[in-house]
Amino acid sequence: MMNLFVLQLLNGVQLGVLLFLIAAGLTLVFGIMDVVNLAHGVLYMVGAYFVATFAALTGSFWWGLVLMLPAAVAVGLILEYVVIRRLYTRSHLDQVLATFGLVMIANETVKIVWGVSPLSVPLPEILSGSVPLMDPLRYPVYRIAIIVAGLAVAAGLFVTINHTRIGMLLRAGATNRAMVSALGIDIGKLFAIVFTLGAVLACLAGALVAPILSVDTGMGESVLILTFVVVVIGGIGSIKGAFLGAILVAVVDTLGGVFGPILLRAVLDPSAAGQAGRMLAPMLVYILMAAILFARPAGLFGGRA
């Protein structure tokens, strides 16, 4: 039981790191630009397809990852200029409708370009295999690499936002963007930087997960709901909140899915416990969100209204 707990805890942390990469961009876009972007999950999907394509062309996962980054920047800049920029002054309902339409267009475009069959990305040889944790427990090296990479990105974001000029502008924009604009800052340029940063982070999450999941259309929708839960729990506009919220949501979701049926066997027969556990496990994340919002309506690190 302890081995299973440690294994699922690590899986939860790994999922949490990926959720953070997606949620960090989403919370900045919502908190600074006041744009509800339902197409953020599309960027996660596009990143996975980019790395799959470039890795196949070059024969190297690492080159695929490197080439994915400028492609992600280009996608972010194009989307911001063509679509998102026209939504800044529109209502949230208009933003939801426009970005939902963008999701449908992106999914169909992916089917046209890459087809409907899932793609696979081979694990880089240096990160294949597993390492011993507790006898006889072993854990995949690549999943550990995802955790390390995510923590490195989180540390880089923390330093950038709290100790650089661009970070100062981002924090000021999240607090009072009208004042930032009045002080002579090009708010349009700032918004383009924010959206592109969010796009790159989401694409990076998709690229990192590609070797351990199948790359297919619609993979962004499944993770988008959890990402919005992370943003709400952490507080809109807060990177620190996005990180803590992502870890909480992922660990609760992962442990609940595994240990829920096991705990229910104490009061139910095994078949009923398994069925009830599978039904109740997805609810745990939303129960967690409701409890946190009851205690802190703005989220863990959200500013007061």
Q: Which strand-content bin applies to the residues?
A: under 5%
How many whole angstroms does the radius of gyration measure? Answer: 20 Å
| Sequence of strands across the biggest β-sheet | 1-2
**Distance, first to last CA:** 45 Å
Largest sheet descriptor: 2 strands, antiparallel
Overall strand count: 2
Secondary structure: helix percent: over 70%
- Following the backbone from N to C, one meets helices and strands in this order, namely HHHHEEHHHHHH
CATH second-level architecture? Orthogonal Bundle
CATH topology: ABC transporter involved in vitamin B12 uptake, BtuC
What's the overall average pLDDT, rounded?
Answer: 87
* Tally of DSSP helical segments: 10
Number of self-contained structural domains: 1
Uncertain stretches of 5 or more adjacent residues:
none
From the spread of the alpha carbons, the general shape counts as globular
